[in-house]
Design goal:
This protein is mostly helical. It has one domain. It is built from five helices and no strands. The longest helix is centred in the N-terminal third of the chain and has 35 residues, at 3-37. The N and C termini lie far apart (55 Å).
Length: 164
């Protein structure tokens, strides 16, 4: 093993470590905000800014990735959208026809699970069902989930944007 190979391997391990830590922090942060939100009279302004920053930064990256996996790329013409993914997983297809890595799919799963969790936490708000005084990050993520579901439906139904 050359020095270059060793450096590459070390960088790979560091990348895996940072991705796992980031995913764990993202998940834990939304669970923490959600459990705090369950307390009647919770003041969302007491959420530390670093928690909101972590959720919005990692969430934004995952949102972009999820949009690409579910079809933005399809509209750009490379065929790697939801329809290509569905076609690749049909019975009788070869595994090498599937356009995404396992890590890319797990990133989408993480994002969707956290969006659903945020929606559940907002629904179970300590001050009432979908109370408007809930933590803004929970409300925003719920609205995002609605947008993701709508976007997936649009791609699934093969709705193409009109030329401007």
């Amino acid at each position: 093993m050359t020095q270059n190979d060793s450096a590459y391997k070390l960088l790979q391990y560091l990348t895996y470590f940072l991705v796992v830590i980031g995913a764990l922090f993202y998940f834990v942060a939304i669970v923490w905000v959600g459990t705090q939100n369950r307390v009647p009279g919770f003041d969302p302004t007491t959420i530390p800014p670093i928690v909101t920053l972590l959720i919005t930064t990692i969430g934004g990256i995952l949102a972009t990735h999820t949009g690409a996996v579910f079809g933005i790329a399809k509209y750009l013409g490379d065929g790697r959208g939801l329809l290509a993914m569905l076609m690749a997983i049909l019975p009788g297809r070869r595994k090498d026809e599937f356009p995404y890595t396992e890590a890319q799919v797990w990133a989408v799963v993480l994002y969707i699970v956290v969006l659903i969790l945020a929606t559940v936490f907002w629904a179970l708000d300590g001050d009432g069902l979908f109370h408007e005084g809930a933590a803004p990050v929970l409300r925003n993520m719920t609205h995002t989930l609605v947008g993701v579901v709508g976007g997936v439906f649009a791609v699934w139904l093969n709705v193409k944007p009109k030329d401007g």
